[in-house]
């Protein structure tokens, strides 16, 4: 399996030094409102495409790998959640994504001077 990486044409690509931690979470959130009518019938309203999220959790990475990730995310072409980039997963599949829920971005330092990375990515709906 390939190591996960972030790619962008105008930015130095970033590759994680380790695989994502298990379990791999990739929740799908349908854009629907579901309710019951007065007679008990189910009513569903569709509001568009489903939201696909991808969790990137990589534990025990080096400070240099963490710093390279921050440089990638802080680049003016990405600027955290402002720009999109390509996420290449372990199966070498590519997904156009943006950083999601970047507020409070925190990579805690753990035993041995290593860092735990946890990011949520959202597939870009085109």
Question: Could you explain how this protein is built, in words?
Answer:
The chain has 1 helix and 10 strands; from the N terminus they run ββββββαββββ. The protein is mainly β and 126 residues long. The strands form 2 sheets. Strands 1, 2, 3, 6, 7, 8, 9 and 10 form an 8-stranded antiparallel sheet that branches. The protein has a two-stranded antiparallel ribbon with strand order 4-5. The mean pLDDT is 94.
Give me some keywords for this one.
mainly beta, eight-stranded antiparallel sheet, two-stranded antiparallel ribbon, 1 helix, 10 strands, 44% strand
The DSSP helix count reads 1
**How widely separated are the two ends?**
28 Å
The main β sheet shows up as:
8 strands, antiparallel
Unreliably modeled segments: none
State which percent range the strand residues make up.
35-45%
- The global form is elongated
Number of strands: 10
Integer-rounded radius of gyration: 17 Å
The ordered H/E elements are EEEEEEHEEEE
Mean pLDDT, rounded to whole units? 94
Q: Give the proportion of residues in helices.
A: under 10%
| Structural class by helix and strand composition | mainly beta
Outline of this structure?
With 126 residues, this protein is mainly β. 10% of the residues lie in helices and 44% in strands. The mean pLDDT is 94.
Question: How do the helices and strands line up, and which of them pair or pack?
Answer:
Elements: E1 5-8, E2 11-15, E3 28-29, E4 32-36, E5 42-46, E6 51-61, H1 63-74, E7 85-88, E8 94-100, E9 109-110, E10 114-123
Antiparallel strand pairs: 1-2, 1-7, 3-6, 4-5, 6-10, 7-8, 8-10, 9-10
């Amino acid at each position: 399996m390939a190591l996960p990486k972030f790619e962008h044409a105008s930015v130095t690509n970033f590759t994680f030094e380790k695989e994502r931690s298990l379990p791999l979470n990739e929740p799908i959130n349908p854009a629907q409102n579901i309710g019951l009518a007065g007679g008990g019938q189910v009513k569903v309203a569709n509001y568009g495409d489903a939201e696909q999220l991808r969790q990137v959790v990589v534990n025990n990475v080096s400070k240099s790998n963490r710093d390279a990730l921050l440089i990638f995310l802080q680049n003016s072409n990405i600027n955290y959640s402002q720009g999109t980039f390509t996420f290449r997963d372990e199966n070498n599949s590519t997904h156009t994504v943006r950083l999601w829920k970047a507020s409070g971005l925190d990579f805690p330092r753990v035993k041995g001077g290593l860092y735990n990375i946890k990011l949520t990515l959202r597939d870009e709906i085109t």
